[in-house]
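lol so apparently i was supposed to do this last week
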Amino acid sequence: MTNLQQAQPTQFSRILAIGAERGELVVTNDDIAGPIDSSDEWIRQRTGIVTRRRAGADKDVLDLAEAAAHKALDAAGLTGADIDTVILSTITHMHMTPSGAAILAERIGATPAAAYDVSAACAGYAYGIGQADALVRAGLATHVLVIGAEKLSEIIDPTDRSISFLLGDGAGAAIVGPSDTPGIGPTVWGSDGAKATAIRQTHSWTELREDASLGWPTLRQDGPTVFKWASFQMAPVAEKAMAEAGVTAEDIQVFIPHQANMRIIDQMKKQLGLPDTVVIARDIAETGNTSAASIPLAAERLLSEGQAKSGDLALQIGFGAGLVYAAQVVVLP
Ligand SMILES: CC(C)(COP(=O)(O)OP(=O)(O)OC[C@H]1O[C@@H](n2cnc3c(N)ncnc32)[C@H](O)[C@@H]1OP(=O)(O)O)[C@@H](O)C(=O)NCCC(=O)NCCS
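anyway here it is w/ coenzyme A bound
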């Protein structure tokens, strides 16, 4: 029998560059508190959010993704033609087909790159980085563009108290490529579909077709259920990511959890026993929860404001609707 030739593997991969694009509108707590009978004080205390960034009607999720992609390409000194794989993590590309990634690849000049979307909600970016790392090391890709992009304002209900007030719009892009040294630790990931309704769309497209009075579907969540799951069950996942990368909390310089709620971030820091010297991403205060975009947006802020630097070891973890989660230790670009 003929032995099949195999792709030539590469030993290591790393994140070469990150680019970020936030919605241009700054939405304050006072702007949204009225219809949910809330207040600036309540929202700050319970979530840490001061403002969230949202995009105007003239921009869709692919516009945000494209802007972030160009910034990442410029920072890496690459062009679209250098990208052979595009992974777009999003839940707000408003067509079930074709994928947003294929359109994005064409827009940035990456055709004929392999291109596909990932639906892993707030874990989408960490899912994408895990896949990009594996594709590069397996020799299936050389430069992978991973983008977490969301225009969550498309699926919010201004009268919903459960989740809509948390949400913002933005996109964060990373380019993953070959490296002389290990730059991405093993991804620890998983799901728990028994909690599928904990964060959910109000009704399906088929239900809307049967009953137009249901109106446009929006998001809801069981806040306390998600809060407890994220605060207590995600720390062991992050611990496993550190163990599999062969590092301890003492080795970590930066912690970049999904920007869901400042109290979840503080609780995870405590559970993980991270020393006070560890820089903690708190982009949620200004940007809100941007789901798949939140980790790269938070990373970009730390790097551009000088709180973190290239070469720092960062622990990142995404978690959300599914429920799904993914964590890995990465070297910052
Ligand atoms: C949504 C969240 C902020 C709500 O905070 P909470 O402290 O759990 O609030 P609860 O639902 O327990 O409600 C506590 C009180 O606040 C009130 N409340 C709930 N939502 C409110 C809102 N948006 N504004 C004002 N008051 C609100 C409730 O009515 C309740 O009042 P009561 O004590 O008089 O009965 C919180 O559960 C959370 O952040 N969960 C994690 C969700 C998350 O991050 N999801 C993103 C995807 S990963």
